[in-house]
Amino acid sequence: MRETFGYQTVTQQERKKRISHVFATIASRYDLMNDLMSFGIHRLWKRNLVKKLSAPENAIIVDLAGGTGDVGAKIYQAKGTPVIIVDASKQMIQAGKDKLDLPLDWLVATGEDMPFADNSIDVITLSFGLRNMTDLDVVLKEINRCLKPGGQFLCLEFSTPNFWLKPFYDFYSWAIIPRLGAFVAREPAAYQYLIESIRKFPNQRELCHQFSKAGFKNVEFDNYSFGICALHQGQKSEVNHP
Ligand SMILES: C[S@@+](CC[C@H](N)C(=O)[O-])C[C@H]1O[C@@H](n2cnc3c(N)ncnc32)[C@H](O)[C@@H]1O
Question: Is the pTM value of this prediction over 0.85?
Answer without folding.
Answer: yes
